[in-house]
Amino acid sequence: MSDSTDTVLQIRRLGNRCLSYLVGSGAEAVVIDAASDPEIYLELARQRRWTITHVPDTQFHADHLSRTRPLAGLTGATPHLPAQDRVSFPFTALVEGDNIAFGDATLTALATAGHTMEPMC
């Protein structure tokens, strides 16, 4: 039996089938592919007494709605994007093998090129 307090919540944005994830560990949380109103993530984190510390997007292209920038702005969390030169706003670049540590957990970036070259899991 595991005594882990790590939790993964899946959030579905109605209307376009975008999924995002709120992953909590200890008192910290990461929002992956924030596509819904930032208040949704803030309320879910508040209910669980988590502080959102990182907000990574796994891809960057025209048909993916991202709310990473506003959520990072509201929380002071670090925004992460796959390494690329198509955006001009500040972010922390992710490449294969990079880690995002939060709470008692660590997420490791895995390059998963698809219809563009930079997507990550």
Comma- or semicolon-separated keywords:
121 residues; 35% strand; two-stranded antiparallel sheet; Metallo-beta-lactamase, Chain A; alpha/beta; six-stranded mixed sheet; 2 helices
Tell me the layout of helices and strands.
Layout: E1 7-13, E2 18-25, E3 28-32, H1 38-48, E4 51-56, H2 68-75, E5 78-82, E6 92-94, E7 99-102, E8 105-108
Parallel strand pairs: 3-4, 4-5, 5-6
Antiparallel strand pairs: 1-2, 2-3, 7-8
What's a concise summary of this model?
The protein contains two helices and eight strands, in the order βββαβαββββ.
The level-1 CATH class = Alpha Beta
End-to-end separation: 27 Å
Radius of gyration: 14 Å
Looking at CATH, the homologous superfamily is Ribonuclease Z/Hydroxyacylglutathione hydrolase-like
Helical stretch count?
2
| Shape descriptor | globular
CATH architecture: 4-Layer Sandwich
Topology order in helix (H) and strand (E) letters: EEEHEHEEEE
The total count of strands amounts to: 8
> Which fold name fills CATH's third level, the topology?
Metallo-beta-lactamase, Chain A
Poorly predicted regions: none
Specify the structural class.
alpha/beta
Summed over residues and divided by their number, the pLDDT gives a mean of 89
Secondary structure: helix percent: 10-25%
What does this protein structure show overall?
The chain is 16% helix and 35% strand. With 121 residues, the protein is an alpha/beta fold. It has one domain: Metallo-beta-lactamase, Chain A, CATH 3.60.15. Helix 1 crosses helix 2. The longest helix is centred in the middle third of the chain and has 11 residues, at 38-48. The protein starts with 6 loop residues before the first strand and ends in a 13-residue tail after the last strand.
